[in-house]
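Re: the request from the purification team.
They wanted to know what the chain is likely to look like in 3D before they choose a buffer screen. I agreed to run a prediction and write the result into the notebook, where they can find it.
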Amino acid sequence: MQVAQILRRKGGEVATVTRATAIPAVAAMLKARGIGAVVVLEADGRIAGILSERDIVYALADNGRGLDHLSAGDLMSRDVATCRPGQDINEVMRAMTDKRFRHMPVLDVDRLVGVISIGDAVKTRIEELENEREALTSFIHG
């Protein structure tokens, strides 16, 4: 299955912030939307980084409770792996697993069109395996 098929099912809405967005505002957005990461954008729309729950938790461990003085630009991961809509989800899942991250922005040429999570990838793979099992069971029992 391709990334584009997953995006069609889940939608292409992407939670984004700027480098200047305060960490409490990012945390509130993550909670309100029930998501694990936001994409940090430059003023021209290019990806500057990605900021996840994990980044915030690590900052809490390093700084204590007071993160009010920090912004998305302070905590974001700058080395962001991306994928394309036509890419196979198994390839994306392998990259996420190997590099130990859980969210990957999807770029169509240079335009941000979605974010795929490891949960999206695993859910899709489980559905594929269930469909294959059902097809084999139907074939065997004719």
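For the purification team: The CA atoms of residues 131 and 137 lie 10 Å apart.
Please add any questions underneath this entry.
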